[in-house]
C-alpha cells in the first residue's frame, strides 16, 4: 500500500509506503508514477489532518508520563530530509520525574509498552535538551540498516499484522555533544540546501562543524544552523510549546476513598459538566472537544475524547454524551477503583446567537435536533462511524468521493460542515435529471461494480436468484448491450439505452481503467447504470437511478 500526496513542484509523490512496498524498492518522496511502475500496490490519498488529530490525541494521553507535552515545531521550509511538512514527534519534559517510575530505564520501558498497546512503533531518545533528544530518536535510534528479506518473507510479515517493540536510547548526563557528534548533519533539523552546502565543504557529520570558524558560519550558511547547533549542545535553551488548554476549561475532582460504583462516577461526570458549562456560558463560548480522564488504582488511566458537531454549552447534552461513552468504556474494563477524575474542553469556539425570523423557528429547531442526533450517534458508535461524503476530482466513480467524520474540526477550528448544508441534504428533493443528460449520475452507487455474468460468448446462459450477482442473456458479441439481466430475484428487460460515455482513470494510478458507461431503462420503468470494461469486454452494474 502507498499513501500519495501532492507536491507543489513535483506533482504526486509517495508520502509513505508499507513494509511490502518498501521491499519492492518504493521510497518516500519518490514520484508516484515511478512507484506504480515498480509495483501494483494499492494507492490511497494521504490525509494530513487525520495524522495531526491523531498525534494531538496521543499527546493528550502522554500526559500520564509528563505534565509538559508538546509537538515538535516546524520551520518555514522542509528540513531533515522530510517529504511532508507536518509534525511527526512528541516532546516530553521528564526532568525530575524519572524517580517516580523507578528510573529512566523503567520510564522509557513504560512509554514503549504504552505505544505498543496503541499499536504504534516508536523511536525514543532521552537526552539533556530537546535538540539532542530529537537527533537521537530520529537518527541514532531509527536509521539502521534494513535486513535482507525476500518479497515472500515481507508479505508474510505484513500478513501477521504485529507491531514490533519500540526502541529507545538514553544519553548519559553531560554527554550530549559526544552522543550526536557521529550523526549526519540532518540531525540538526537543517533544510536540504544547507546540507548540500556543507557537503561541498566535505562536512557530513555534526562533530565536523568544530573544524569551521564560527564567525563566518552564520554569514555563509545562515543563523539557523548556529541556533540548532547551540540548542543540540545545550548552549541555548529550546522551550517545548505545550498543548495544554486554558485553566478555565479544566476541572478536576479527587476522591477521599477510591470507588468503582458506576452511578457515583456518572454523577461526578454530570457535576463536572455543569460546572464546565457554567464557565463557558460566562465567556460566551461553547465546547467542540471534550477530554475526560479517569485515574484508576493500579491501572493505566482511562482517557475519553468527545468531538461535537458544533459548539455547545448545554450541560445536559454534554453530560448525556459523556456518560454514554463512559458506560461503553467501563464495560470492557475490569472493576478498577477510581480515585481522580478530570474534565477539560480542549477546543472551544464562540457561541453565535442570531435572532430568528417569524417563520424560521421551525428550521432553527430542526437544526438543533440534527446537531444533537449527530453528536449522539458519534458518541455511541464512534467518531469515524458517522461520516459525510466529500467529493473529489476523480473520473473513476468509486473513487470520486471520500468519507470524512461529521464531528471534529479543521486546522482553523471551524466545524467541518455547516448545519444549514446538512439540513438541506436531509430535507431537500433533487430534481429528476433528463434521461439524455450526459452528466447524469445515479443516486445509489454500488460499493463495488457487480459483474453481469453471461455477457461473454464463453459463458452459458443461466439464472441466479441471489442478490449479489446479476445475470444476463448471452449476446452475440462482447460489445453488444445485454438484452436482459437478473438482479435481486427479478428479471429486467432492457428497453432503452443512452451512451456510451467513456471514463478512464489517470495514468498516475498504475494500470489504466477504461470503461464505456450506459444509462439503461428497463421494461419496469427503472433506470440502471452499467458499463463495459474495455480491457476484458465484461459488463458490470454500477448504480441505480432513483
Give a verbal description of the structure.
The model is unreliable at 144-151, 410-432 and 456-468 (pLDDT under 50). 23% of the residues are buried. The longest helix is centred in the middle third of the chain and has 22 residues, at 262-283. By secondary structure, this protein is of the alpha+beta class. Among the domains are: 49-140 and 161-233, no CATH class; 248-351, Dna Ligase, domain 1 (2-Layer Sandwich); 444-544. The strands form six sheets. The protein has a seven-stranded mixed beta barrel. A four-stranded antiparallel β-sheet has the order 8-11-9-10, with helices on one face. It has 14 helices and 20 strands.
Residue stretches low in confidence (pLDDT < 50, at least 5 long) are 144-151, 410-432, 456-468
Structural class: alpha+beta
Query: What share of the residues lie within helices?
Result: 25-40%
Largest sheet: 7 strands, mixed, barrel
Tell me the fraction of residues in β-strands, as a range.
Answer: 25-35%
Task: Tell me how many strands there are.
Answer: 20
Which value, in Å, is the CA radius of gyration? 29 Å
Shape: globular
- Placed side by side, the strands forming the largest sheet appear as 14-15-16-17-18-19-20
The count of helical stretches stands at 14
The CA-CA distance between the termini, in Å, is 36 Å
- Integer average pLDDT: 80
Amino acid at each position: 500500500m502507498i499513501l500519495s500526496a501532492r507536491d507543489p513542484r513535483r506533482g504526486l509523490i509517495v508520502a509513505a509506503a508499507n513494509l511490502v512496498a518498501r521491499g519492492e524498492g518504493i521510497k518516500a518522496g519518490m514520484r508516484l508514477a515511478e512507484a506504480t511502475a515498480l509495483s501494483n500496490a494499492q494507492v490511497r490519498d494521504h490525509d494530513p489532518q487525520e495524522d495531526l488529530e491523531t498525534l494531538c490525541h496521543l499527546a493528550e494521553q502522554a500526559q500520564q508520563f509528563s505534565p509538559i507535552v508538546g509537538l515538535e515545531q516546524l520551520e518555514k521550509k522542509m528540513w531533515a530530509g522530510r517529504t511532508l511538512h507536518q509534525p511527526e514527534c512528541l516532546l516530553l519534559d521528564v526532568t525530575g520525574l524519572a524517580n517516580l517510575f523507578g528510573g529512566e530505564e523503567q520510564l522509557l520501558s513504560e512509554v514503549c509498552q504504552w505505544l505498543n498497546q496503541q499499536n504504534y512503533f516508536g523511536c525514543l531518545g532521552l537526552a539533556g535538551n530537546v535538540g539532542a533528544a530529537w537527533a537521537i530518536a530520529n537518527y541514532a535510534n531509527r536509521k539502521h540498516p534494513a535486513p535482507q528479506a525476500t518479497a515472500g518473507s515481507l508479505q508474510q510479515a505484513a500478513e501477521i499484522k504485529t507491531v514490533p517493540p519500540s526502541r529507545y536510547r538514553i544519553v548519559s548526563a553531560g554527554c550530549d555533544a559526544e552522543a550526536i557528534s557521529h550523526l549526519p548533519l540532518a540531525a540538526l533539523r537543517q533544510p536540504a540546501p544547507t546540507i548540500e552546502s556543507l557537503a561541498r565543504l566535505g562536512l557530513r557529520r555534526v562533530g565536523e562543524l568544530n573544524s569551521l570558524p564560527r564567525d563566518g558560519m552564520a554569514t555563509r550558511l545562515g543563523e539557523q544552523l548556529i541556533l540548532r547547533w547551540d540548542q543540540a549542545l545545550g548552549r541555548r535553551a529550546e522551550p517545548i510549546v505545550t498543548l495544554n488548554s486554558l485553566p478555565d476549561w479544566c476541572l478536576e475532582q479527587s476522591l477521599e476513598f477510591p470507588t468503582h460504583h458506576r452511578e457515583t462516577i456518572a454523577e461526578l461526570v454530570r457535576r463536572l459538566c455543569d460546572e464546565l458549562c457554567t464557565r463557558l456560558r460566562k465567556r460566551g463560548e461553547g465546547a467542540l472537544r471534550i477530554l475526560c480522564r479517569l485515574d484508576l488504582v493500579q491501572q493505566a488511566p482511562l482517557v475519553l475524547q468527545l468531538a461535537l458537531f458544533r459548539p455547545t454549552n448545554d450541560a445536559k447534552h454534554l453530560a448525556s454524551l459523556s456518560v454514554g461513552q463512559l458506560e461503553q468504556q467501563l464495560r470492557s474494563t475490569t472493576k478498577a477503583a477510581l480515585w481522580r477524575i478530570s474534565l477539560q474542553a480542549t477546543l472551544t469556539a464562540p457561541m453565535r446567537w442570531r435572532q430568528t425570523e417569524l417563520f424560521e423557528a421551525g428550521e432553527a429547531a430542526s437544526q438543533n435536533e440534527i446537531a444533537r442526533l449527530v453528536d449522539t450517534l458519534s458518541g455511541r458508535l464512534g467518531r469515524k462511524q458517522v461520516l459525510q461524503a466529500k467529493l473529489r476530482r476523480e473520473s473513476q466513480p468509486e473513487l470520486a468521493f471520500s468519507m470524512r467524520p461529521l464531528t471534529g474540526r479543521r486546522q482553523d477550528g471551524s466545524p467541518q460542515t455547516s448545519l444549514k448544508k446538512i439540513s438541506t441534504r436531509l430535507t431537500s428533493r433533487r430534481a429528476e435529471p433528463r434521461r439524455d443528460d450526459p452528466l447524469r449520475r445515479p443516486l445509489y452507487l454500488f460499493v463495488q461494480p457487480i459483474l453481469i455474468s453471461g455477457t461473454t460468448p464463453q459463458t452459458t446462459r443461466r439464472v441466479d436468484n441471489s442478490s449479489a450477482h446479476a445475470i444476463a442473456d448471452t449476446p452475440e458479441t462482447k460489445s453488444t448491450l445485454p438484452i436482459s439481466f437478473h438482479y435481486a430475484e427479478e428479471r429486467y428487460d432492457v428497453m432503452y439505452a443512452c451512451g456510451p460515455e467513456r471514463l478512464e482513470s489517470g495514468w498516475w494510478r498504475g494500470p489504466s481503467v477504461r470503461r464505456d458507461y450506459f444509462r439503461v431503462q428497463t421494461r419496469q420503468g427503472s433506470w440502471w447504470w452499467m458499463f463495459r470494461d474495455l480491457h476484458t469486454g465484461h459488463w458490470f452494474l454500477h448504480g441505480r437511478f432513483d
